[in-house]
Write a structure and sequence with these properties.
Layout: E1 6-11, H1 14-22, E2 31-34, E3 41-44, H2 46-51, H3 63-68, E4 72-75, H4 78-95, E5 99-103, E6 106-110, H5 116-134, E7 138-143, H6 146-158, E8 165-167, H7 174-179, H8 191-199, H9 205-209, H10 213-231, E9 249-259, H11 262-282, E10 285-296, E11 306-317, H12 320-334, E12 341-349, E13 352-353, H13 370-385
Length: about 425
């Protein structure tokens, strides 16, 4: 029986790498990308990692270090990152059709029909092609299971002499490698598992690999057994080639400034519903439940306030206008005058496939209706001309609720007016 062969492709410091593609002056310099509202660090260059600034660090706590080491600070630009991710994934698909897109910067590949010698050469070609065509550096690790491929990728990132690729299959020093992998760095080990395992003197991937099967079954159940078998080279986590539709869709934002007026909150909620309903239609689903929530600023004096209101829709829908109408009704129920609101959001749940709607004499089908055709037309126009080319008027123009993004780069790849201009 042939060995299974999995590869994990991981884009290096992805958000920072995207920024460097369009601003070469950032190469070699310490760079951080911040979360929404320029709050916390969500991506770091290697230079910043060496300085000891951790992932998720609140920006205000490191202002002195930023000035001292002249760290470049950038606001997040998820439109740019999403498009660059799409370009990377398209290249990967062209070179290996058996692909599972795991996250915005990670993908699993299956090389079951390659010889091991061919794989070593081929992953180098993949890395070279992605770098040449997109400018994004990637690391690729190969293993007999997804968990071992994850470990191999971690080593490919850390050890410069590997030049971004590492194949752990067939090596005689696998156990020595696992001895250097801390328990928290194993795929699937959360903080609760980590704490329990350390209490039982399990500190590394090597320690876990040689745990008794019955002990793992008793204390760590099915998830723990799966990890144990994966570390021993027995695949238990298969490739998922078809992306599963989301069970819930949530859109929420912290505001750049506190909001007090109902009108401003209404514009924010309607905008969030517009975004969520687009995602709903993209995965060909309908929503049966709509929830709206608001939250006060927890860092300012005054009344602490959090409230959510939920409505069960009579007819499952993906109609933006209908969802906005119901969402505004729910917002009226929870809005309280005099509160300074810092965050709001909407959640669509009870999602069903658009072809599986239960009909009755009183409920017409969304599929094939005039409202579905209208939504399709709007989505098509926005896709061709640009996002928000058409949007509900209730969303407003000035958008006082927009996030604070003082140092956001341009959308070089998705907006004609922001395309990069090269002067001779």
């Amino acid at each position: 029986m042939n060995k299974r062969v999995f590869a994990l492709v991981d884009c290096d410091n992805f958000y920072v790498s995207c920024e460097r593609v369009f601003n070469p002056k950032l190469k070699g310099k310490p760079v951080v990308v911040l979360s929404n509202n320029d709050g916390c660090v969500i991506s770091r260059s290697n230079e910043v990692k060496e300085l000891g600034i951790p992932m998720g660090a609140p920006m205000f706590k490191y202002e002195d270090m930023i000035k001292k080491y002249k760290i470049e600070v950038l606001s997040s630009n998820f439109t740019l990152y999403g498009d660059m991710s799409r370009r990377v994934m398209e290249i990967l698909k062209s070179m290996c059709p058996d692909i599972e897109i795991y996250s915005i910067d990670e993908a699993f590949l299956s090389f079951d029909y390659f010889t091991l010698h061919d794989i070593d050469d081929y992953i180098k070609k993949i890395r070279e092609k992605v770098l040449k065509w997109t400018g994004i550096p990637i690391s690729i690790g190969v293993g007999e299971t997804k968990s071992l491929a994850k470990i191999a990728t971690k080593l490919a990132k850390k050890r410069k002499e590997l030049n971004g690729t590492f194949n752990i299959i067939g090596r005689s020093d696998v156990d020595e490698i696992l001895k250097k992998i801390e328990i928290r760095d194993i795929w699937g080990i959360g903080s609760r598992f980590e704490e329990f395992l350390k209490k039982n003197e399990v500190y590394t991937a090597y320690d876990y690999k040689y745990l008794p099967f019955d002990w793992v079954k008793k204390h760590l159940k099915t998830v723990g057994l799966r990890i144990l078998l994966e570390l021993n080279g027995i695949p238990c986590i298969e490739m998922e080639f078809i992306e599963k539709p989301r069970k819930t869709i949530c859109t929420s934002r912290s505001f750049g400034k506190d909001l007090e007026d109902f009108k401003d909150l209404k514009e924010a909620i309607s905008t969030f519903i517009t975004i969520s309903s687009e995602k709903l239609r993209k995965q060909k689903s309908l929503a049966k439940i709509l929830s709206v929530f608001v939250m006060s600023n927890p860092f300012k004096e005054g009344e602490r306030y959090y409230k959510m209101s939920t409505v069960y829709l009579e007819k499952p829908t993906a109609n933006t206008s209908e969802l906005i109408e119901r969402g505004v009704e729910e917002l009226r129920k929870i809005y309280k005058k005099g509160i300074l609101y810092k965050k709001a959001g909407v959640v669509l749940s009870g999602l069903i496939d658009e072809n599986e709607q239960q009909l009755s004499f009183f409920i017409s089908s969304y599929k094939g209706s005039k409202e579905e055709n209208l939504m399709k037309t709007i989505d098509l126009i926005n896709k061709k001309i640009g996002r928000d080319s058409i949007f509900p008027g209730i969303n407003g123009i000035e958008k006082p609720y927009k996030m604070r993004q003082l140092k956001r780069s341009k959308n070089y790849t998705t907006r004609w007016e922001e395309i990069l201009i090269v002067k001779s």
